[in-house]
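INFO  loader      accepted 1 record
INFO  loader      residues=206
INFO  predictor   begin
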Amino acid sequence: MVALHIPETQACSVHASASGSCLSARWCLKMSARIPVFKTVLIGEGGVGKTSITLRYTENRFEDSMRMTVGANFASKKVTIGSTQMTIMLWDLGGQPRFHDVVQDYFKGSKFGIAVYDVNRLYTLERLEEWIHRLREVAPDCDLLIVGNKIDERTNDGGVALAEGIAFASKFGADCIEVSAKTGQGVNEIFETAARLLIKKYIQKV
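INFO  predictor   done
INFO  writer      dumping tokens
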């Protein structure tokens, strides 16, 4: 396997407005004008750990108490796989019901979607179907990865088995992996998978 090299990170918060989305997108494009930039959105219900996954990946840290995302949090990371460089531009979207109409604006231009559920709460997987449909209404060519988070909290009492996540993902032509933002297990694999799929779809075909 080719090593994943991550030399640089940028991050900021974006409040719930379309103008904020455009300004931050222009900032990131300017920052990475010499290499391809791919907008990647993290979607799913509130509390599943989207922000924790983003924080673990971009800053390699975890906070036990996270504030609710209002609108979207924004971060970017430069990635090198083999001889190919890119910037993955991350949009961590608020999952609370009152933000659903707002975050729809942030789907525009998305090239990859990371759909996150909590392996201890089945309904968060079931709710992903609506999130995915809404994303693909705006960005129909957006590829997906289904991610089950919080495996460090898994017990034998219910929850979502990996086989259930895989079966769900297959309906959308996607893969499913399980991770723990708290321990870091599997988190880099999310973005390595995204980077490789983006290279295959948008760079190697050129």
